[in-house]
Design brief:
Blueprint (H helix, E strand, L loop, with lengths): L16 H14 L19 H10 L1 H4 L3 E4 L6 H9 L3 E5 L10 E6 L10 H4 L1 E5 L11 E4 L3 E3 L3 E3 L16 E4 L5 E2 L8 E2 L2 E4 L2 E3 L5
Parallel strand pairs: 1-2, 1-5, 5-8, 6-9, 8-11
Antiparallel strand pairs: 2-3, 3-4, 6-7, 7-10, 11-12
């Protein structure tokens, strides 16, 4: 019988992604640094001053000239969606309630600022079906995803399920927003995906230049 595996001396035990998510969610809750939905556990946290982080991200030189973005449906991204739509940027936001065949995703195509709110998307949005190999999102230039934790090296940890859980894999730059309590130099666990830019309360982190 094989002997049980033991950690190498001097090396910390590996941290599971779920453990780190719980750590970040609890830290945000203790600091009262997030808003509805509460508790933040199970969500991409709607952290305080997310609008400021979104404004910084949209103003970044790599983003400010873009005309079409894919943006997640999370509450934390609602201010960014509104700012982007007000600036004339077209958005694709995943349609959470319309089923599609495996591998396909329905999106709302939005240009009206009222479409920043999920409840208004059926009134002002145009449904578009993404089909792998045939697309439907041909004009999208980047994607903004919610996160639970982010390393300054660009490693991203999402909530663990749902749209964009492992990134989108569309060959587009993927971006995110983060509160200081969500940031670390490097994640202590395996990442779900990687991002090119991180909008924060104080500016934008560019992992490739750090």
């Amino acid at each position: 019988m094989d002997a049980p595996t033991t950690p190498s001396p001097g090396l910390p035990d590996p941290v599971l992604p779920g453990t780190h998510r719980e750590h970040v969610w609890s830290a945000l809750m203790r600091a009262r640094a997030c808003a509805y939905p509460l508790p933040p556990h199970g969500h991409h946290p709607n952290f305080t001053r997310a609008r400021q982080a979104g404004r910084h991200l949209l103003a970044h030189p790599q983003v400010s000239g873009l005309h079409t973005l894919i943006v997640g449906p999370d509450r934390v991204l609602a201010p960014l969606r509104k700012l982007a739509l007000e600036a004339g940027i077209t958005l694709y936001v995943p349609h959470q309630k319309k089923p599609a065949q495996r591998g396909q995703v329905w999106y709302w195509r939005l240009s009206d600022p009222a479409g920043a709110r999920l409840s208004a998307m059926p009134k002002v949005g145009e449904p578009v079906l993404y089909v792998p190999g045939k697309s439907g999102l041909e004009d999208a230039q980047a994607a903004v995803l919610g996160s639970v934790a982010v390393g300054s090296d660009g490693a991203r940890l999402g909530k663990g399920f749902g749209w964009g859980a492992r990134g989108l894999g569309l060959g587009l730059p993927e971006l995110t927003l983060a509160h200081p309590l969500m940031l670390s130099g490097a994640l202590p666990c395996a990442a779900d995906s990687r991002v090119a830019l991180i909008g924060t309360l104080d500016g934008v982190l560019e992992p490739s230049t750090l």
